[in-house]
Design goal:
By secondary structure, the chain is mainly alpha-helical. It is built from nine helices and no strands. It has one domain: Tetratricopeptide repeat domain (Serine Threonine Protein Phosphatase 5, Tetratricopeptide repeat). Helix 5 packs antiparallel against helix 6. It is elongated, with a radius of gyration of 23 Å.
Length: 197
């Protein structure tokens, strides 16, 4: 047997490198999913909770699995700033379960990412209509209303978020900072208008 030929063939064997890259990619994907399930992006709160599907007993196990799979895909795409892909996933979730407030909220955040604030506002409103206690919907609504130059509406939505969220909520500080900034700006505008008269 020719040992030099055997050694040369081993040095060209890329299977070990491919295996190592596959393991690294799987681990990185797991880290992304773990990060998404624990937090948000740019101060946006993603909801990763599984909501019951519409009316009890109407959805098949297969439908529930697709909803869960598509919802998680959407959350990962949202975290990766792939807003169009996130919208596609959440659109499918909403086709299968239009009464899932978490899907409405995350669709709103995807639309904020695309700077489509009016449509985002509508999705946050629909999430709130479905579940009044959907706390992250108020946060997203406040962001959308601020971009739509509706400062009083943004302040009201953010105050609701602060009121409904838990004291240890990681977005409390950002919400308080936004409220302080918005209310200060509003007071300065009022003072300037008073001086102009």
């Amino acid at each position: 047997m020719n040992w030099q030929a055997l050694r040369a063939s081993r040095s060209r064997d890329v299977r070990w490198r491919a295996l190592a890259l596959t393991v690294i990619a799987i681990a990185a994907g797991g880290l992304v999913i773990a990060a998404v399930s624990e937090g948000g992006l740019f101060g946006w709160r993603f909801s990763t909770a599984s909501a019951p599907v519409g009316a009890p007993g109407l959805a098949t196990d297969q439908t529930r699995q697709e909803i869960q799979r598509r919802f998680q895909q959407g959350v990962v795409m949202l975290h990766a700033k792939r807003f169009e892909h996130a919208m596609t996933a959440f659109h499918r979730v909403l086709e299968l379960d239009p009464a899932m407030p978490e899907a409405h909220v995350n669709m709103g955040f995807a639309l904020i990412g695309l700077r489509r604030y009016s449509a985002a506002r509508d999705f946050f409103d629909s999430a709130i209509a479905l579940r009044k206690q959907q706390v992250n919907a108020y946060y997203g609504l406040a962001l959308a209303l601020d971009e739509l130059h509706d400062r009083p509406g943004a302040i009201g939505a953010m105050r609701t978020f602060v009121h409904l969220s838990k004291p240890d909520d990681p977005y409390q500080r950002k919400a308080q900072a936004a409220l302080w900034e918005w209310e200060s700006a509003r007071e300065q505008e009022r003072a300037a208008a008073g001086r102009a008269r």
